[in-house]
Amino acid sequence: MLKKVDTIEQFNEIIKEDSRFYFFKHSLTCPISQAAYKEYEKFTADHQEIPAYYLAVQDSRPLSNEIAERFDIKHESPQAILFSDGKAVWNASHWKITNRSLTMAWQENE
Fold first, then answer.
1. Residues 70-89: pLDDT tens digits?
2. What Pfam families does the annotation carry (predicted)?
3. Total domain count for the chain?
4. Do 66 and 16 touch, CB atoms closer than 8 A?
């Protein structure tokens, strides 16, 4: 289940509804981000039971900035963040975003 999120309001609903989920910040113009997004897509296809969301930085700058500020995570793109109980418990960027790293982070933060 991979869903695009565009607004702070949508993100706040996700925080309320999902106790654990992945969020991905994606740049539409960066080839590294494209490669990381493909890894994220593969992960979500293999684990459809895991809630997974993303934003396109160019389309959703206010939300991207809100996540960075609220959770004290330096903004990067691409960037994958694992949220659990309303907190960011893991994040990775660039080439560190792989199907394997996403799987391991999910298992380690159960």
1. 999 999 999 999 999 999 99
2. BrxC
3. 1
4. no
23: β partners: 53, 81
Q: What is the pLDDT of residues 35-61, one digit of tens each?
A: 999 999 999 999 999 999 999 999 999
Helix axes 8-17, 61-70, angle to 10 degrees: 50
Q: How far apart are CA 104 and CA 1, in angstroms?
A: 19
User: How far is Cα 57 from Cα 46, in angstroms, rounded to an integer?
Assistant: 25
CATH number at residue 102: 3.40.30.10
pTM over cut 0.70: yes
All residues at 6 or more sequence positions from 41 whose CB lies less than 8 Å from its CB, including other chains: 2
d(CA 21, CA 40) in angstroms, rounded, equals: 13
